[in-house]
Backbone:
């Protein structure tokens, strides 16, 4: 046996134990993080894949310099850009889920790394920010930008720590962070102040405040203080800032500080596992409360309509159906598409609005009705509902899904220049590029449109005479569609369904 | 710097190509975007940059002035240096610029037939234009704002964006004859108001009274700056279902015209302007003694909205007494012609009146057939602004401060997204081929944007507006009520 020179056997033995312990701790930490990541991955992939689809359809990430420049020209722009970047991959659900899992694990690992404590006992506390984020994302208007902003802010904290609390890093990092990550970068400001722990360190607070005030009166004149202080794109509605958003952000800097003052235990590994279990249970409980079942069922129905999985939708409704007009529209469309519209009264119905909804100014309610209009041959109405859905996206983003349909409507209507405009924009995206390129052949080519089975059919069944749409007389509009073209079975079925639902309303 | 290098590199290459006979003549005019061939522009305008269509990867352009001077541009698109362009244009006022365009494709240079642009003898010294920018939607608006653009370069900046007062819609910025020291705009929504700014002081007005049917809608300043004419409209919109390239119909089921004395915040009413007929789109003459407006006989809408036709009418206005005349005169009988006249805009020199002429209704931007027409105010003769019009709608026009230029919104580019066009008028009423507001890279800008540019107007100087204060004022809900003049 060869022993290292200069090391007495006892010392060598101690070193081996130390190395073993370190390796054990590292293994434990890696395992816990990996388990957490795997859990998040499965959560999104199996439990709430519809949330991935909804996030994706409410943005249109473009691979262009001008798109990136537009994002980076705004406070919090890099976080926003990165959030949209990962969200585009939700088109492939397992990839979208994997990226969200990686974001969660990255936040957790960075939260742990920003602290100085090496005691593994409290390692599970570093999962709190990611767990809070998961709970917070139960509100489908929470944007992935929030997670990216926290990562960017923690990255600055790590850089500062690695640089030995170098003031130059703080001086550059604070403005960079506030601009690139948005108000989440206050985490970095707090981190710098906490690490310095001196009255002079409060100067960093004054420095940061001065930067924000300067930005407010120069680059951000068009934005109210509330947004400047609480964030632009962490939540889809610009002026809504849930408390949990701020709590999530602040937890990423509070947790390491708390860990540093907590006592050590004799059995760190056991403590670690116990705390981990408590945090997992707490997260599971809170998640179960924050993800509203009906809301996510409505979203799931809509995603099934989007992907034309009609049988799956009907099967899902047979198990559980939320009582909302939006879900009724989706279900009734699926019933018709599967040849089962006569079964409609086996399910919850809420009157005529559950067949075709009046226009609602939000990005979810109109979508299934727009799909029904499209198939009925009410092309202009499908266009209007799609356009208004896109314009209703709270953070003013565009939508690949809606823009596709708008382009198709314009192709059917022969407004090829507008259709071409939409196709050229879609060509700049990753997941709509092929579709857009394939559909370019219809531009200015009447023959191509007239020989396409879908577009030619829609041209045949759409209204022959022009008149003004009037929702209260939907039955008449459906009647006209059917009477002018008896091949439009859908209009006929929908007309009868409308009448039946109308009677149901009268009885009520 | 990049452009300069490209130009320096391209020029000798071009010479070599030409000398070795590698330039292939292309016996046709180049397909450029925007269509600037044969347009007339003012020397002060930003360069009329253009793109060469047809799959060319590079373009080289040489511009030669009729009175002298040369300029070149090359690259992915023809982008000219602002200073050099304006210098060349100034050298050639009243003359032409000749453009030699070469496009590079498949390793060869193709030379097109030369074309010309005319440098107008009429200067355009106004600072720029203001407009509303938003997605041309139906019932929902997302990003919306009023912007100003310096027409001598490419700088655009917001006056107020929807972000500044979230949840509210901003629209219809109206200055006093291009002078932004007096302007107003309407804010719609929960915290709605009519914002009147005079010499930097703002008033947030509640313009609805018990005696009027709605808030102020379409407005026009009296040349004195002491009055504003408003229309009060019950506006509705419905949507066409068919295939006639029309989607939206905006109509009123009631409308009146009133005048607002901004010194006392009193409304001056006249029964002649508040009848059962639809009165709308008021505009004062340049001397302030006449109020033009449009009037349609009452028709049941929306059932018969295609039968709503507006005449152009006028009534006297006495600014000293603050009262109307007692007679309404019909200047254009569009009802008999089965047409509709809307949006009268008299020139500030008192010579012309520009208006929209469509088949029916009062919202020409949604009417493909809508054209611009001109009335000679001296003799009442009317004629189309032929060279400015297109097969698509032209609307929301207005005059430059010297009244030799007018701008308007047109959907001619793609039938949906409006752009701002400029045309000039000479002493005899001849208009020139309109050109679209120049952009640095026009194709990328116009084809890539999902915004429509609407309600444009000239602004003599830069508009100054305190957005921060506006946010506070909007959400304070402190509004000054308008009263009725006894």
Residues:
């Amino acid at each position: 046996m060869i022993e290292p020179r200069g090391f007495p056997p006892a010392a060598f033995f101690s070193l081996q134990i130390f190395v073993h312990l370190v390796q054990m701790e590292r293994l434990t930490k890696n395992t816990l993080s990996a388990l957490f990541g795997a859990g998040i991955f499965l959560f999104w992939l199996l439990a709430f894949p519809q949330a991935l689809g909804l996030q994706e359809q409410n943005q249109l990430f473009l691979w262009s310099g001008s798109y990136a420049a537009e994002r980076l020209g705004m406070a919090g722009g890099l976080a926003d850009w990165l959030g949209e970047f990962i969200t585009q991959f939700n088109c492939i659900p397992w990839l979208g889920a994997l990226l969200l899992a990686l974001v969660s694990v990255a936040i957790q690992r960075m939260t742990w790394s920003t602290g100085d404590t090496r005691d593994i006992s409290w390692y599970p506390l570093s999962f709190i920010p990611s767990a809070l984020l998961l709970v917070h994302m139960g509100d489908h208007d929470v944007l992935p930008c929030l997670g990216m902003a926290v990562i960017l802010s923690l990255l600055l904290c790590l850089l500062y720590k690695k640089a030995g609390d170098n003031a130059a890093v703080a001086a550059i990092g604070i403005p960079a962070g506030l601009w690139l990550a948005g108000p989440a970068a206050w985490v970095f400001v707090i981190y710098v102040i906490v690490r310095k722990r001196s009255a002079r360190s409060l100067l960093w607070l004054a420095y940061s405040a001065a930067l924000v005030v300067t930005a407010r009166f120069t680059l951000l004149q068009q934005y109210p203080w509330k947004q400047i202080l609480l964030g632009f794109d962490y939540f889809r509605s610009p002026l809504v800032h849930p408390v949990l958003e701020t709590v999530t952000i602040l937890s990423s800097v509070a947790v390491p500080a708390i860990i540093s003052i907590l006592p050590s235990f004799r059995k760190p590994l056991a403590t670690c596992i116990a705390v981990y279990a408590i945090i997992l249970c707490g997260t599971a409980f809170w998640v179960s409360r924050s993800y509203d079942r009906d809301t996510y069922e409505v979203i799931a129905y809509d995603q099934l309509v989007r992907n034309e999985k009609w049988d799956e939708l009907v099967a899902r409704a047979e198990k559980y159906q939320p009582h909302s007009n939006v879900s009724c529209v989706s279900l009734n469309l699926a019933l018709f598409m599967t040849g089962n519209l006569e079964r409609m009264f086996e399910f919850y119905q809420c009157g005529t609005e559950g067949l075709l909804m009046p226009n609602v100014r939000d990005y979810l309610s109109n979508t299934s009705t727009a799909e029904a209009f499209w198939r009925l041959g009410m092309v202009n109405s499908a266009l209007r509902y799609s356009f208004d859905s896109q314009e209703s996206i709270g953070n003013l983003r565009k939508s690949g899904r809606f823009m596709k349909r708008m382009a198709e409507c314009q192709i059917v209507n022969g407004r090829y220049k507008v259709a071409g405009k939409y196709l050229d924009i879609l060509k700049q995206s990753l997941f709509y590029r092929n579709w857009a390129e394939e559909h370019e052949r219809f531009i200015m080519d009447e023959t191509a449109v007239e020989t396409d089975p879908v577009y030619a059919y829609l041209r045949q069944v759409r209204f022959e005479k022009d008149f003004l749409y009037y929702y209260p007389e939907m039955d008449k509009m459906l009647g006209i569609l059917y009477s002018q073209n008896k091949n439009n079975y859908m209009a006929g079925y929908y007309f009868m369904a409308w009448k039946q639902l109308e009677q149901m309303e009268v009885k009520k | 710097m990049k452009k300069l290098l490209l130009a320096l590199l391209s020029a000798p290459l071009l010479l070599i190509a030409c000398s070795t006979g590698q330039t292939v003549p292309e016996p046709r005019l180049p397909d450029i975007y925007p269509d600037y061939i044969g347009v007339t522009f003012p020397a002060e305008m930003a360069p009329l940059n253009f793109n060469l269509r047809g799959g060319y990867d590079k373009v080289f352009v040489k511009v030669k002035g009729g009175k002298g001077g040369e300029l070149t541009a090359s690259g992915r698109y023809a982008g000219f240096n602002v200073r050099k362009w304006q210098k060349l244009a100034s050298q050639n006022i009243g003359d032409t610029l000749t453009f030699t365009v070469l496009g590079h494709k498949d390793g060869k240079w193709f030379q097109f037939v030369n074309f010309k642009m005319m440098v107008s003898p009429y200067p355009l010294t106004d600072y720029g234009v203001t407009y509303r920018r938003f997605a041309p939607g139906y019932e929902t608006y997302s990003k919306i704002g009023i912007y100003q653009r310096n027409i001598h370069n490419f700088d655009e900046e917001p006056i107020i964006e929807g972000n500044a007062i979230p949840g509210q819609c901003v629209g219809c910025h109206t200055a006093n004859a291009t002078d932004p020291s007096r302007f107003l705009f309407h804010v719609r929504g929960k915290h709605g108001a009519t914002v009147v700014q005079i010499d930097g002081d703002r008033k947030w007005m509640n313009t609805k009274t018990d005696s009027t049917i709605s808030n102020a809608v379409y407005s026009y300043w009296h040349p004195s700056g002491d009055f504003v004419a408003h229309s009060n409209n019950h506006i509705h919109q419905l949507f066409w279902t068919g295939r006639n390239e029309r989607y939206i119909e905006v109509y009123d089921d009631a409308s009146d015209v009133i005048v607002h004395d901004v010194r006392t915040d009193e409304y001056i009413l006249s029964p002649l302007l508040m009848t059962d007929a639809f009165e709308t789109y008021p505009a004062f003459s340049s001397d302030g003694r006449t109020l033009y407006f449009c009037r349609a006989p009452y028709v049941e809408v929306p059932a018969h909205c295609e039968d709503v036709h507006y005449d152009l009418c006028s009534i006297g206005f006495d600014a000293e007494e603050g009262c109307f005349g007692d007679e309404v005169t019909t200047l254009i009988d569009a009802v008999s012609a089965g047409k509709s006249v809307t949006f009268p805009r008299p020139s500030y020199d008192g010579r012309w009146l520009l208006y929209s002429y469509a088949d029916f209704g009062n919202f020409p931007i949604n009417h493909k057939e809508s054209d611009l027409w001109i009335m000679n105010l001296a003799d009442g003769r009317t004629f189309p602004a032929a060279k400015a019009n297109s097969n698509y709608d032209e609307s929301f026009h207005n005059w430059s401060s010297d009244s030799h230029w007018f701008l308007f919104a047109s959907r001619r580019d793609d039938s949906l997204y409006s752009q701002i066009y400029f045309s000039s008028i000479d002493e005899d009423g001849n208009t020139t081929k309109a050109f679209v507001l120049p952009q640095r890279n026009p194709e990328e800008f116009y084809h890539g944007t999902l915004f429509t540019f609407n309600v444009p107007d000239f602004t003599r100087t830069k508009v100054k507006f305190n957005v921060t204060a506006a946010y506070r004022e909007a959400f304070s809900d402190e509004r000054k009520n308008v009263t009725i003049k006894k």
Notes: Helices of chain B lie at 2-19, 82-91, 334-337, 442-448, 467-476. Residues 217 and 231 of chain B are 5 Å apart (CA to CA). The longest strand of chain B covers residues 248-261.
